[in-house]
Amino acid sequence: MSSEQWTVKRLLEWTREFFRSKGIEKPLLEAEILLSTAMKIKRIEIYTNYETEPDESQRAVFRDFVKRRGNGEPAAYLAGYKEFYSLSFKVDKHVLIPRPETEDLVLKTLDILKTYPDGSRLTVADIGTGSGAVAVALAKNLPPNAAEAKIFAVDINCEALSLAKQNAETNGAAEQITFRQSDLLGSVAELLDVIVANLPYVSEAEYDMLPSDVRSYEPKPALLAGKTGTEIIERLIYQSADRLKDGGHILLEVSPMIAGAVKDAAAGLAGGRKNAEIILDSYNRERIVHIW
Q1: Residue pLDDT tens, the chain, 292 long
Q2: Which of 105, 108, 124, 127 is nearest to 176 (CA)?
Q3: Backbone torsions φ then ψ of 114, nearest 5 degrees
Q4: Quick check: pTM over 0.90?
Q5: Among 100, 83, 93, which residue's Cα sits nearest to residue 217?
Q6: Of the four listed, 37, 70, 196, 248, which is most buried by Cβ atoms within 10 Å?
């Protein structure tokens, strides 16, 4: 064992099998993320360093990462970042780890923005911004007709909001985004064209069924909504009645378990807005409720 050369290639192979035995969904990807972080190189550089042997300090960091990941700690928190919409976001215990399915929320929002006339000076609010992933992804990908859009990134948690500001600066989007500490729309007086939100939507019953690496490490207030899972979403829709412009849109990421309930309730909660639809995500699950 001691005579074996622990090259990048060998470390990845061993770790992939170890993670696979632990039931980790993407074992090689996570091994690459953690090893590149330990070596302080970009993940893409892993491929040109297969025959390199990391030094002992790098291997020590990597061993610690592997042990902690094997015990359930999310790779994104260990590495300190998560890729989302081809951008890199710093994450820590104060924010949820951005999920691939939330990229569908960004895509649908961009599709809505494309329907406005050229030169529209739109106002868009990302409520419950967390790491800022949605707000920053929108700011970096605004369609030409909505290039002058003003984006508000709103969160009740000051630590999350500080992290979102850092992510906006790192990704070159800080000048396009106004950050606001607020309980939903409570401190947002501006009239809005589009409200987009990935709020807590897990019910008490569903929370107990979450994977242990989510339940044990990600912030509970950002996950758990209440008994039914619709409580915080319904509050936002109520508040939107006098914040959303005529012809405006609300796009909500939800659990497939409550999508129908949110859609059914939307007409009565949205200040006379009678149109609501459920949109499937890339995994063919009921993930987004669109109200207009």
Answers
A1: 345 789 999 999 999 999 999 999 999 999 999 999 999 999 999 999 999 999 999 999 999 999 999 999 999 999 999 999 999 999 999 999 999 999 999 999 999 999 999 988 999 999 999 999 999 999 999 999 999 999 999 999 999 999 999 999 999 999 999 999 999 999 999 999 999 999 999 999 999 999 999 999 999 999 999 999 999 999 999 999 889 999 999 999 999 999 999 998 887 665 566 799 999 999 999 999 999 9
A2: 124
A3: -65, -15
A4: yes
A5: 93
A6: 196
